[in-house]
Specification:
Blueprint: E1 4-7, H1 10-28, E2 33-34, H2 36-39, H3 46-56, E3 59-64, H4 86-96, E4 100-106, E5 130-132, H5 137-150, H6 162-224, H7 235-278
Helix pairs in contact: 1-5, 3-4, 6-7
Amino acid sequence: MTNIFINYRRSDASGYAGRLHDRLASRCGPSHVFIDVDNIEPGEDFARAIDSIIDKADVVLVLIGKGWLQAADANGRPRLHTNNDYVRIEIATALRRAKVVIPLLVGGAAMPGEHELPAELRPLATRHAYTCSDGRFHADVDTLIDKIDRKPGTPPKARAKPVHAAAGMASFLRRWLRRGMVAMAVLGGIVYSGAMMLDLPDQRAARSFVTLKQSAATASPRLATTRDSRLPPYSDEAALLRSEQIDLARRRVLMQQQLDEIQRRYNTTARSIIDSMGR
């Protein structure tokens, strides 16, 4: 895993340093990102601790804001040109040990010229700088991490993705849950419509059978008093039965057509759901 050290001046870019640390920690893991406030124990020798941390670091990010060069001590001297300035010591140590040093410009700062730097920091001016804008800070940091991963001299597979894996799984589950709810609603509607269509012929047949029985009951007395005694008994009832049978046959054909339509809709919906889940 790539170990990253953040070099910054509190009076110049402490806010950016905090945001950068949090973003790097979420992408690379907190144990691989070092910043002086969080990684030095109380009572520990500051200079020795910084020296040890830089020794373990693979990449050193030098945050440069608009006030980076102008920061002065109590006597008005530029702090970067004093021998006991920790920002200067950290950068010089990283350069001397041939670490990957990346100037990181924040807050609209420009890269300082070589003539503006102390002699031991002048190699910093030849390092290609990277800019993090305020409006796209997180996106710019993510791009920087990707560049660090591909940079020669840094360990492969530099990123651990525990946070992103969890976020991706949550997004995946939410997406499948939404699609499942839509699928259930669509299939439920189709099944309900099919049940209604299947139930209608049975209801009509039941009503027709009741009507047929009533018609037969009223037809029997009438047949008993008919003038044509040669007609067989209940001929009107037989005619009604034949008519009802024809009507039921037609309804069966209609019901089969409706069943075929339900099957077609089900197949179409099932294919659409499967295709959407595959994406």
